Amino acid sequence: MIATMMIVIAITTGFVALMLFMIGVDLLMLLPIVIGLNLFQWLIGPYIIDAAYRVRPLNQGELPWLEESVRMLSQKSGFKNPPKIMVSEIPLPNAFAYGSPLTGPRVAVTRGLLNSLSVSEVEAVLGHELGHLKHRDVQIMMFLSVLPALVYWVAMSLYYSGVYSGSRRDRGNGGILLLIGMLGMMIYYVLTLLIMGFSRSREYYADYHGSTVSPGGPLSLASALVKISDMNARAPRNVKASMSGYSSFRALLIADPESTAGARAFRGIYDVRALEEFASREISAAESLVEVLSTHPNVVKRVRSLLELHKQLYGGA
């Protein structure tokens, strides 16, 4: 992950520095604009998420077991104060951690998650989300997202400068600007793929954290992931759109609503044998390609990783 961050920073810095050298200092105006827009988005993002996912604060005493679970998991995670608990009135099971300096840290669970998962599974999911807060993934991903955005703005500025070069004298430079702008867009897509890979790595770390602080351990989190994936697979398109329609926020969720693992009947908490059967499923080439273009690892891979962690922690018991 450190190597990925260094590569992203190096590519961005190199491209922008080259453009400034070739074009002049006018592009420096883009840097504060892009940073300012991303900071503004980060600050007001929680309010947008609340509106998009129909999120509200959990009323005190509404779900005492949930409040107690968050307190217990926060203490195990090393937080001085637990994050604010939020409920999203969406029928699909999912959860996400978010927040900004204006709102403070928040952890949200959907109504579908509360209705379809056991207490042990919900606690494992909450542990995963607390892992994201502990590792400051929201801030890290915000920082990394600024860099491709900067390249994108620079590339688009150069591209359209080349397209609209009117005079004959400017046409030669216009062609160069056009080519550089297209190169910049290619670099933008490469950076986006690198950051998606970085995001997938962060999910594994959050899975590890959730498994080690929740009483149910890796099996409860694996069971929760399978159930969430199964419900997503069988959900009607209009229901799934309530979460998957906001592509900018899908990286926050514990599971991508568009990523499915094949529907199957629920059997309560999955035991080791059932989870091993699920993890043994072959991942197709198409699914591998989808994973490369996703912010989340394939759920089969995540379950395999959790089963391996279970063996390390409990000796296969």
Helices and strands in order, then pairings?
Blueprint: H1 2-23, H2 30-52, E1 55-57, H3 64-77, E2 84-88, E3 95-100, E4 104-110, H4 111-116, H5 119-134, H6 137-163, H7 168-213, H8 217-234, H9 237-244, H10 272-279, H11 285-292, H12 299-314
Parallel strand pairs: 2-4
Antiparallel strand pairs: 1-2, 3-4
Helix pairs in contact: 1-6, 1-7, 2-6, 3-5, 5-7, 5-8, 6-7, 7-8, 7-12, 8-12, 10-12
How does this model look, in words?
This protein has one domain (2-314). The chain is of the alpha+beta class. Helix 1 (2-23) packs antiparallel against helix 7 and helix 8 (217-234) runs antiparallel to helix 12 (299-314). The protein contains twelve helices and four strands. The model has no long low-confidence stretch (mean pLDDT 83). Strand 3 and strand 4 (104-110) form a beta hairpin. It has helices spanning 2-23, 30-52, 64-77, 111-116, 119-134, 137-163, 168-213, 217-234, 237-244, 272-279, 285-292, 299-314, and strands at residues 55-57, 84-88, 95-100, 104-110.
